[in-house]
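Standup notes
- HV: blocked on the assembly model, inputs below
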Amino acid sequence: MPAFLAVIYKELRLLSADPSSLILLLLLPFILVAVLSEVFEPLVVGTPRLDLPVVDLDRSESSMNIVEQLSGIDGFDVDLEQRSQFREADAEALFGGGQRVAALVIPAGFEDALSSRGEAMLTLHGDPARSSYVSILHEQLQGRLLAEQLSDTIARVAGEGGGEAAVARAIESAAARARVETIPASERGTFPSAFEQTVPGFAVMFGFFTAFYAAWNILREREEYHTWQRTIVSPMARVGIAAARLVAYTAVGVLQLTVMLLLGRLIWGMSLGDAPLALWLAIGSWSLVSASVGLLAGFVFREIQALSGVLYLSVVVLGALGGALLPVTFLPDWMEAVSVATPHYWAVDAIQDLIARGQGLTDILPHLAILLGFASAIAAGASLVRRPA
Amino acid sequence: MYPAWQVIGLIQKDARLILRRPQAAVVLLILPLVLMAVTGPALDFVLGETSLRVTIVDLDRSERSAQLLEELGGVTGLEARRAERPGASFDEPDVRDLLDGGAAVLLIPKGYSGADGPSLRYYVDPLQAGLATVIQGRIEQAAFLTELPSAVAGSDAAGQDAVRRAVASAIEAPAVRVEDSLGTEAQGFPSAFEQSVPGFAVMFGFWMAGYFAVVLYSERELWGTWRRTLASPVPRWSMPGTKIAAYAVFGVLQLAVLFTAGRVIWGVDLGQAPVTLAFIMAAASFVTVCFGWVVTSLVREYLAQQSIISLSVFTLGAIGGAFVPVFLLPPWMEWLSPFTPQYWAITAFQDAMFRGAGLADVTLNIGVLLAFSAALFFAGLARFRLVP
């Protein structure tokens, strides 16, 4: 046992000998998580707010009514411009180099058309590089304008045939009955914030950098410091040496994820769920998987270039496949099927169950078992692939 | 003046270094392609081009609930799946099983069609609440249309007729309509892949900075080839310059392969201006390599170099609009975006591919990218130690 602890102590001393790298290891994932969570927030929370430049060429009472209706719609920041003419090139200038998706033009003669023919047209000039968003915007605008006009139209048509009050009652009754009660499908009872949704995935994804750090240190010990050779001639079984390394790097992983989640709690007020022990076990199991991968990679690779390439690929690709970037249900069916074969899937799902869905230890026991299975298989693979000597 | 062949020899040496280590292709080519393959379909979801799966449980089994089911079948963006619940029972814990990977469960409760019946219940997976909320508006609209006839039936005959005419008039021929105009030389509608390929190509093209740093570190600290080159009869200060030029060429090749793969695999339209694309690729590659150069000049530790470059690939890419279009970013990020080279590169590619822009239209973008390159190069030069 003292020998086992001595190897762990040696590993931690090696880590502390390079404090700048250790600080980077702890902070790098947090910075990535912070930036990417901000980026994904509008998509996670729902329809994002859009700037909508409106060019009023008509400058009439009717056109002002339209602007007023649009200003009242949630999700749009209307930016009114009154001009006397408008060309295609003006639309491109209004897109602001990709910072706006479309511009709405109220053409000259809008009010005349409305009063003489009873109908008029608005033009939505969309950025062709963003046509999907233009379609969404178009649907929203048309829907909201229709809703705004519905009561006027109904009042007008009903007024012609009588029974206006009865119509109003019927519409009101149908609208009341069409209401949908939205309920979160989880034990938590409330919807999680954007950070509570995104942080678990990114934390797992970038927590995987621990594997790179573990492998890189093994490589350095073998090729640069030559402390590996000294360790294996010590009176301790090789399995014990490998296990001590696993413990040391698992501790680093747990520290890394704990720092990340605590900073998330302090800065964004993230809930960490009601089961701290379960959360700690989940991040511990995930860190053990990362440390095992680091052990395997450290034994397999001889060159830092190959190690970097393969581990970066693993961080990003396995993370994306495992649902760390976007929910697994967004992936095509075949990828969704593959995702359960990645340890990332089980780690992300377990931490999301605890933080975003408000579940407890018993709910994530299968996840923990599968993660420990992955860690054991990978560590066993490390001992088979190549002798540490 | 030294003969040009000596400089070309240096570039050839770097080409051999790259070709001898095929693992470079993993990060430089396979990584972006796999990520495009993974995130492309996901972006389809975000753009609303793929339907959201909603399980519907009908406990009412009435004529009206059947009408609602029929109406829901036609709702855009909703893939309705029926789940049978024999015996008209439903417990809250059932919801998790019923979700089965979908976004939500819509429950038509027992007694829904009655005069004061309960309202529809929409159980949403907390992790898909954003998109499920968008669909909720469409479900309410479908329910409204289903409810309308029975609501009207309660009023007198004149009222019923008036409502029918009014609704038909308001919905089928609204007074104010909005028409689309995409008005540029570009034709067609870019797909999710056409929106994501330029973004991810630029974002992961930035890994070339990491590879440049790896090779420079290895040459200086591990292989000893830097010292050997210093001893060769080439101008000493041409070494960083030729190395940057060589890796900028590899960067162009990398981007060309990524865009070509996008064209071949996902049918991405590369536009009508290949020369313009080539110029943008060259400018973007120069910035990338100069970034790798400045990092290796300022930071000596290998892990620190790679950490800074990894951080930059993701954060600058995200702020520059690679993951999510700039107009969807939070305001402070939207403000920061033009300070990243990725923003100028992505905008230039999209201009050339989808907005019908030619070389003259993207001059500003290319100029900004070259200015970034020059600033990074000289910042690195000030701190670079030729002899390690």
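- HV (later): unblocked. The mean pLDDT of chain A is 79. DSSP finds 16 helices and five strands in chain A.
- Next: hand off to the docking folks.
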